[in-house]
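Quick question about two entries, pasted in order.
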Amino acid sequence: MPAEKSEPPVTAFMLVKTTPEWLALTVQERVDAFTTQVLPAIEAKTTGVRSRFYDTEFYSARVTDVWVWEAEDHHTYQRLIDALRETPFWDRYFEVVDLLVGTENGYARTYGLEPVATITT
């Protein structure tokens, strides 16, 4: 069996904390800022990414939100981060507290096993 050549998708859990500047904006201003300042930069620099957003300020004082970014490979993920760093998202509207990057079920792929951590009931 030949070695697998394609890279597994990359998932990044971006733990962020809102800044006073972001919180001073109205909800509509926040939506406008994201759609006019952040999304165009991402779309101009990369394809093959998707994101999901989770509010966590109800349960954590350290981070207010978690963005889950999925990229089709490591290079795409790097282009995504480069794009975000060139926008007010990075360190102006949000403080990036931590980045946790991995591949889903990487151990299973490495050892040719079925994933045991993914449970569907």
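Here is the second entry:
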Amino acid sequence: MASTAPTRSRGMTGIGRVLVVVYGIMALAATGRSFVQIVREFDDAPVAYTLSALAAVVYILATLALIFSARPAWYRVAWIAICFELVGVLVVGTLSLVDPALFQHPTVWSVYGYGYLFIPLVLPFLGLWWLIRHRRTAS
């Protein structure tokens, strides 16, 4: 017999919760960092500090999208945000190594997230793995 009761999001248990917590921490850290950088010394490195603010927005969006990923629209938003995050960390990380003059001041994604113990490099891969693993619950 099929149940008509609303189902709870199966993704917010175990690793799903841990992933949301880590994304939330990164959102807070990136937001705080970019706010301080922009307020104190924006003129010193506007590109780097704008990239930190962009990373903060991406982490906030990814956190919310993962929380609500049982809904199809939010599941798609999670894919977009996490793919954007992956491209961002790979591009900024590579550019910060190839041409350090571009990023004389560090961003969240500089050197693949070195300042954050490389969590920005690992996190999108884990996020994409989780989305693939939970695609049935969100489709």
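Reply: The longest helix spans residues 15-41. Residues 1-11 have pLDDT under 50 and may be disordered. Hope that helps.
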